[in-house]
Design brief:
32% of the residues lie in helices and 25% in strands. The protein has 469 residues and is of the alpha/beta class. It folds into three domains: 8-151 and 275-336, FAD/NAD(P)-binding domain; 155-272, FAD/NAD(P)-binding domain, CATH 3.50.50.60; 349-460, Enolase-like, domain 1. The strands form five sheets. Strands 1, 2, 3, 4, 5, 6 and 17 form a seven-stranded mixed beta sheet that branches. A five-stranded parallel beta sheet has the order 8-15-9-10-11. The longest helix is centred in the first third of the chain and has 25 residues, at 85-109. The chain is globular and about 70 Å long. The protein starts with 7 loop residues before the first strand and ends in a 9-residue tail after the last helix. Its EC number is 1.8.1.4. Residues 11-329 form the FAD/NAD(P)-binding domain. Belongs to the class-I pyridine nucleotide-disulfide oxidoreductase family.
Length: 469
Amino acid sequence: MVVGDFPIETDTLVIGAGPGGYVAAIRAAQLGQKVTVVEKGTLGGVCLNVGCIPSKALISAGHRYETAKHSEDMGIKAENVTVDFSKVQEFKQGVVKKLTGGVAGLLKGNKVDVVYGEAYFVDNETVKVMDETSSQTYKFKNAIIATGSRPVEIPVFKYSNRVIDSTGALNLQEIPKKLVVIGGGVIGIELGSVYANFGTEVTFIEAAEDILVGFEKQMTALVKRGLKKKGVEIHTKASAKSVEESETGVKVTFEVKGEEKTIEADYLLVSVGRRPNTDELGIEQVGVEMTDRGIIKIDKQCRTNISNIYAIGDIVEGPQLAHKASYEGKIAAEAIAGEKAEIDYLGIPAVVFSEPELATVGYTEAGAKEDGIEIIAAKFPFAANGRALSLNDTDGFLKLVTRKEDGLVIGAQIAGPSASDMVSELSLAIEAGMTAEDIAMTIHAHPTLGEITMEAAEVAIGSPIHIVK
């Protein structure tokens, strides 16, 4: 049935139902607003459907396979360990389905209207939402743009059956024998590691001096060592030049140290960053200010230069992280409700689900020194922790960065098992204005990896127990 295009009124219109948009919609509804969410794809956005969640499901499956094959040190030996990759993919999709279904239930439970289609701004109070057969006008008091990002496509390496992006890598129906990855950032390293664990011969081509730029070299060195143990080749300061594609594979040409090389593989994964989805919304004609890269400019409350239009997530400055988008979504919803919430990124963590896992929050040692802050950098190794030893997983360390004058915790870096879980305590410490003494005096359960945080705090205050000062 075709409905006449009479404007539908709503208090807050959220464009995009990813981890930023759906969280913003729920918080706005909790604060008494009538909320409509527009989604052109699937609830949950990239993160739930083709990003964070499915990649972690594959990473977990890869770890299980790797552990099954290599647990001789613990007296466990398995023969003829096999992978049914179709079942692995079924498991991954099952996780995704549960979570996207959960998002739908949460939106419904909070009385948020969900509309499917593409939104286009008519003016600063109106959008048209279009699907394949019709369009509908919506009038709003406030709008939150949460349209996320998409993989950057290099003209020389256009996506195809054999030249794939992260979505393609997540949806392969077989384990490739050989995989080339252009890009040694978080996404490339995580997906390359998945297939390396399943036995794929993986080669990385990275233009920068090191993989995982932005993380400390002490941390990335551990990841590189782990990858090389699996037979992974890593070429840094390397430039990918071209690709020849056939029905069965690719031949990639690249240059490293002035020498041109070629490598053959089943697939080429191109993972060189993501670009904001701000180019098909019509926001230019509304006058929303953007950078040359299509990043929307916002203030401390996620408000654009148009006072009733907000923007969050990958389309604004800062790291492209799902939890950053969710955080900003809450800030925007609260700002619309008249609250004084403002963004503060110091306590926002970043994580890589590599081997070992990496996590960082707040200041690094180098960053603090650059800002002229006198610090104490206190390290404690996983190898001195009983739980890490019992897990037979002792590579790594925790570094606590504290302000010298008063012991205030201003940053932390973790490389080791469960770093992704351990970092939350340190985010809380920074957010709450805690000192190293506060952490050292907090009783941590034994034996746990969490004790490493306490032990590093004891190093910071000069009273370590389980390592010699």
